[in-house]
Structures are given as C-alpha cells and as structure tokens.
C-alpha cells in the first residue's frame, strides 16, 4: 500500500473538505469579523510553505501543522469556551482554509517532497 487514498475514499475525503468549508463559511457569517478580515487571513496557513526553504522534512512538518484540523479546531474550541471572538474568528478561517484545500485535493505532506500527499501525487509529476 502506497499511503495514499484512491477511489471512493478519495472522493469522500474531498467531499468532507467541501462540507467543512461550507460549515466554516456558514459559522463565519454568523460569528465572524467581516468578510474583509476573512479575505485577508484566508491564505495565512499557506505561509507554512516557507518551511520548505529548510528542506522537505521541515517543510512537511510546517505544512502539516498548518493544514491539520488539530490546531484549527483547538483554536476554534478555545475561542468558544473562553469567549474570545478573535480566536473563534481565527479558528473558523483556519478550518475554512483546510476544508478548501482538501476539497481541491491538497492533502497532508510526506517528507519525500511537497508533491507527495495523502491524496496522492500532485504537480506535474502526478
């Protein structure tokens, strides 16, 4: 087994990304700080790409941290439980970003290089 998902499982994971994106957008419309803030911060998790300047191992760790639901949901939960609207906003935007990426088929990265994801190979060598 190659460590990548295929077939129906891949479709389900991409649909899950769409559902998370839709849920985050719906929640943001109710609890967020305006769509301008959303637009400004939506791509912030992609700054993790800079980790690849230090090699594929560091890049994969940085990318996976920024594109895993663990930190995003922790931020969202802390915002709710501690009544901190900025954390709630950040968590919703972060979840929306991850959902968007997963919907498009951009998965968590393996240390072999940026193009190796749990969804399979991406890029021109896919």
From TrEMBL:
<feature type="transmembrane region" description="Helical">
    <location>
        <begin position="66"/>
        <end position="94"/>
    </location>
</feature>
<feature type="transmembrane region" description="Helical">
    <location>
        <begin position="12"/>
        <end position="28"/>
    </location>
</feature>
<keyword id="KW-0472">Membrane</keyword>
<protein>
    <submittedName>
        <fullName>DUF4260 family protein</fullName>
    </submittedName>
</protein>
<dbReference type="InterPro" id="IPR025356">
    <property type="entry name" value="DUF4260"/>
</dbReference>
<keyword id="KW-1133">Transmembrane helix</keyword>
<dbReference type="Pfam" id="PF14079">
    <property type="entry name" value="DUF4260"/>
</dbReference>
<feature type="transmembrane region" description="Helical">
    <location>
        <begin position="35"/>
        <end position="54"/>
    </location>
</feature>
<keyword id="KW-0812">Transmembrane</keyword>
């Amino acid at each position: 087994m190659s460590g990548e998902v295929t077939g129906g499982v891949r479709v389900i994971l991409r649909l899950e990304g769409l559902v998370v994106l839709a849920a985050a957008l719906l929640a943001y419309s109710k609890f967020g700080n305006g769509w301008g803030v959303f637009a400004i911060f939506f791509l912030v998790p992609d700054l993790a790409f800079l980790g690849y300047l230090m090699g594929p191992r560091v890049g994969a760790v940085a990318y996976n941290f920024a594109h895993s639901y663990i930190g995003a949901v922790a931020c969202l939960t802390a915002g709710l439980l501690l009544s901190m609207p900025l954390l709630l906003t950040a968590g919703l935007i972060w979840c929306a970003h991850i959902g968007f990426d997963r919907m498009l088929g951009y998965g968590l990265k393996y240390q072999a290089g940026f193009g190796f994801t749990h969804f399979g190979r991406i890029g021109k060598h896919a």
